[in-house]
Design goal:
The chain is mostly beta strands. The chain is 12% helix and 39% strand. The protein has one helix at residues 3-11, and strands spanning 18-22, 27-30, 36-39, 44-48, 54-58, 62-67. The strands form 2 sheets. The chain has a 3-stranded antiparallel β-sheet, with no helix packed on it. A 3-stranded antiparallel β-sheet has the order 3-4-5, with helices on one face.
């Protein structure tokens, strides 16, 4: 995963929560764009979770990113 591609999920308007799946079996939920910091230069990211958890990972560890489905508006 490139930094630009991951930043595309973070900067999406409107933002939609997403989950990052890593090669070691971890999955990190990103409910808000400020939860994830991405370094273009270092190809690293830092996720800040509930209860002050922090996880760092290399972008090449990302297997996939899955967005929550968009909410449908009643017609």
């Amino acid at each position: 995963m490139t930094a630009e591609k991951l930043l595309g999920f973070v900067r999406a308007v409107p933002f939609r929560p997403f989950t990052i799946y890593l090669g070691d079996g971890r999955s990190l939920v990103v409910p808000h764009p400020e939860i994830l910091l991405v370094s273009k230069d270092l190809e690293l990211a830092t996720w800040h979770g509930p209860d002050e958890e922090t996880e760092g990972f290399a972008l090449d560890e990302v297997l996939k990113v899955v967005r929550k489905p968009a909410k449908r508006r009643p017609q």
